[in-house]
Design goal:
386 residues, 14 strands, 31% helix
Length: 386
């Protein structure tokens, strides 16, 4: 009979996943929900005990809970039909269905997809080993690097590691008194056509952004770090839900482009200087390719988001506008936990660092890498800009 107590506790714990968005701000709910996928271990233990003592009703209950956990994890392995997402509390698995091909603009421009690589890492108060970061940038051919918790002499140490040789352009987040253990930054191989030291209002560290023309797309990159729950549960939830505003920004940009096209003011040819971006396509004679259509707008949001797909606030962010897809979930190639990573022999357990993207972009690969002196793994993602 005593087995019912831990089984009911685990069931109620798992049910926290279905709280309405924003209700998960009450402490310690953010931390408790982050641990929901790890409840597989106590469920298996309770099942074994129930079988040993022949407590058959409790064994059935444990099996049911275990099946639910496996169904929740299934999207990381195989794509699920869309109608199951609400029932399972699974976020949008892909936004690739809404691509430039839908409007015919990419076909008319004769463009082919362009592959880029991005990396994000929380540097833990700026203490992360910059030599390792530089090694990963070169080894993985990283085009855009997002760093969080920029503090002290981190940027200077990156410069000493010759980061400018690979990523010569940077946008530093606006420093604020309430920075979440440091500011955020973007370092890029591409020259941005627009940039800002802050963007979406996240009550933690300011989110710097940079827009880059890649093929027929104008891609806005952002480095983000919503507030940690121990600092403020309400600010954590508000900051996580605000991530969806990047999808709204891309939608607004696309709407403005459509209105310009309808008014006939976008008939100008869009010239791109390929010397700023060697990955951009050129014509046969080597001159920068010119496009007769305005670029489609997209967003790539990277950083330590202090949340996982199990958090209602995070899933709410992915539903904003035309939607954001989590690259790790979209691939269905397994899990990519990033935290904690303080001890070399102890594996990371939860996935709270993410690379999100809007339509017109598809994730092609995701991997993690260890960086000394930080408690997060670096997340490296190959993206195809369509």
């Amino acid at each position: 009979m005593i087995l019912w107590i831990p089984l009911v506790v685990v069931a109620l714990w798992m049910a926290l996943k279905y709280l309405p968005a924003g209700w998960d701000h009450h402490r310690p709910l953010p931390e408790a929900i982050a641990l929901v996928p790890l409840l597989v271990a106590p469920i298996i233990l309770l099942l074994v005990v129930a079988l040993v003592v022949r407590a058959w009703p409790q064994a059935v209950m444990a099996v049911v809970l275990l099946v639910i956990q496996l169904l929740w994890q299934l999207p990381y392995v195989v794509p699920l039909p869309g109608f199951t997402t609400a029932m399972l509390g699974v976020p949008l698995q892909s936004v690739a269905g809404t691509t430039l091909r839908d409007s015919g603009s990419m076909e008319s421009a004769g463009q082919s997809p362009t592959t880029i690589r991005v990396m994000t890492v929380n540097t833990r108060y700026g203490r992360a080993d910059t030599g390792t970061i530089m090694h990963l940038v070169k080894q993985e051919h990283v085009d855009v690097l997002a760093v969080q918790e920029v503090h002290g002499d981190l940027i200077h140490r990156l410069e000493q590691s010759h980061i400018d040789d690979e990523l010569p352009y940077r946008v530093l987040g606006k420093a604020r008194a309430d920075d979440n253990a440091g500011s955020n930054a973007l370092l890029m191989r591409f020259r941005p056509v627009e940039y800002a030291d802050s963007s979406v209002d996240i009550r933690a560290a300011a989110a710097p952004v940079a827009k880059v023309r890649i093929g027929g797309q104008l891609v806005e990159f952002a480095s983000v770090h919503p507030k940690s729950p121990p600092r403020s549960g309400q600010d954590w939830s508000d900051g996580v839900r605000a991530l969806g505003e990047f999808a709204n920004r891309a939608d607004a940009c696309n709407t403005a482009t459509t209105l310009r096209e309808m008014s006939g003011t976008s008939g100008l040819r869009h010239d791109i200087d390929s010397s700023d971006n060697p990955k951009l396509p050129t014509d046969a004679d080597g001159t920068p390719k010119q496009y007769s259509t305005a670029p489609h707008c997209a967003a790539v949001v990277m950083g330590d988001m202090n949340s996982s797909v199990f958090h209602p606030s995070f899933r709410d962010a992915l539903r904003h506008g035309s939607g954001l897809a989590d690259s790790s979930l979209e691939l269905h190639h397994g899990w990519h936990p990033t935290f904690p990573a303080s001890w070399p022999t102890f594996p990371a357990l939860i996935e709270i660092d993410h690379v999100l993207h809007s339509s017109g972009i598809v994730a092609k690969s995701v991997r993690t890498a260890r960086v000394p002196r930080t408690d997060h793994l670096a997340l490296i993602v190959k993206l195809e800009v369509q």
